[in-house]
Design brief:
Elements (H helix, E strand, L loop, with lengths): L17 E2 L5 E2 L19 H28 L4 H10 L1 H11 L6
Antiparallel strand pairs: 1-2
Helix pairs in contact: 1-2, 2-3
Length: 105
């Protein structure tokens, strides 16, 4: 074995990466133990991912319906505000809350 300078990071050959269950590789340098607790957990299956997306879509649709009904009660353009709040979920809803009129008596 040859002598390496003191600043050399790997004094011995780097072992090949290990295979994990999903078929990918894990490297001790790429995944430090300190960072693992702070990483987001991935869904267990693709079904969980699609159910999450379906739930977000449904919630956005229900918020859009509420905005539509509230806009009609305030004599504003309901279909426009539904499209804005459904098409741009968070910013459209906040924009509606900022620009809405007083409720008609």
């Amino acid at each position: 074995m040859t002598a390496h300078p003191a600043w050399y990071k790997y004094p011995r050959p780097i072992p090949p990466p290990e295979r994990n269950r999903a078929g990918g590789t894990t490297s001790p340098d790429a995944l430090p133990i300190v960072a693992l607790p702070y990483q987001a957990a991935a869904p267990a299956t693709p079904i969980v991912f699609w159910l999450l997306l379906l739930g977000l879509y449904l919630a956005s649709f229900l918020v859009g319906l509420w905005v539509y009904q509230d806009a009609r009660l305030r004599r504003m353009r309901g279909p426009f505000w539904f499209a804005v709040s459904f098409g741009v979920p968070i910013f459209g809803f906040v924009g509606y809350l900022i620009f809405r009129r007083e409720r008609a008596a």
